[in-house]
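Sequence only, no structure available. Ideas?
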Amino acid sequence: MEMKAPRGTMDILPPESERWRRVAERGTALFRAYGYREIILPIMEYTEVFARGIGQGTDIVQKEMFTFADKSGRSLTLRPEATAGVARAFVQHHLDKAGLPVKLYYQGPMFRHERPQAGRYRQFRQLGVELIGSPHPSADAEVIMVCNEFFSMLGIETDLVINSVGDGDCRPAYIDALKEYLAVNKASLCKDCRRRAVENPLRVLDCKVESCARVIAGAPGLEAFLCEVCRQHYHEVAELLQAASIPFRRDDRLVRGLDYYTRTVYEFQDPQAGAQNALAAGGRYDKLVEELGGKPMPATGFSIGMERVMLAGPRLEESEDAGVYVVAIGEAARGRAFLAANRLRSAGIRADLDHMQRSPKAQMREADRGGFACSVIVGEDEMAGGYYTLRDMREGGQERVEESGLVETVRQRLELRQAAPGKRGMGEDGR
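Reply:
I predicted one. Tokens follow.
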């Protein structure tokens, strides 16, 4: 049997993995700048965390979760999303005792048993933030602003789409009206939506099947059913976004696919993509913490789908892959080259060396292929004289560096290289 990654998963290999890392690091640095701190969650939870939090009537819970029993018979599920786990951790560890709001960010893999397609995998990666403790529109506006800035700094064009799904006071009337409308149009719905129309009619509004989309286009909108409190909350969020010069449009039928949302919901959509166009999504979930055993606690947040972000082509500045490659000329020099590389690494400098017994010229080719800015050469002359030869891999120039000054000289040369990056080149003589 051919050994390969399971269906719906993928290996992210160098150099693409470097781009993923840089995107994630830029995102988490942005989150920290806004005062969010990292929470590291388990990749599995007891199944009831998601069943109660996300909703029994959602497609995620009914069809998409990877669920199994542990040896004691307790049902566990690989996390299909992170917000329910964050809320569980908030309750379990009484995070509100340190003061509100609690501002957290997370990153890592999620798991859903879906049909694999471009940008959608069974194991996928998300970045996200949660702001727990504030009921105010400014909290919604802040997390939307964070997400908007993430895409802006990556040069990714997005359309921000917002709606309000109301709350427990006004949404039931809308659900009744939607049920009545869907019952009249039942024959035009797909098989899944016929079930959803009875069990959880809001989920019909998420369907991407063409026949259902035509029905949804004529469905009643949420705005007409909002109570005055929810209506005012939406308008205040909208005013804050306008004041921050963040463009958006309202979609009266945007609901998102999770039952825990209340009031504000939104998506950052890729205008160049097809039906699966959401790069990030989020909203307010004022009942989730209480549903998982905590006291009433308003909250809001979003998650970013890394696979779709990478498909959208984030703009990353070309960075000089600075570092040094230590070249050993002759077997006697390999021990000293090993120690020199270790010394440079201990000083925080990227350094590598040959482990394949290559010739000096082949080692220089490795240095060039690996993107190293400089090479440190150790040969008979260097060992006898107590110095190293430092070569610029772009210009080919060389200089003698005394043993005591190796780290400082290399650091200075790398700083100069980063200040004036350019095309690198290798020496032709192997020295």
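The domain at 16-170+226-311 is CATH 3.30.930.10 (BirA Bifunctional Protein; domain 2).
Hope that gets you unstuck.
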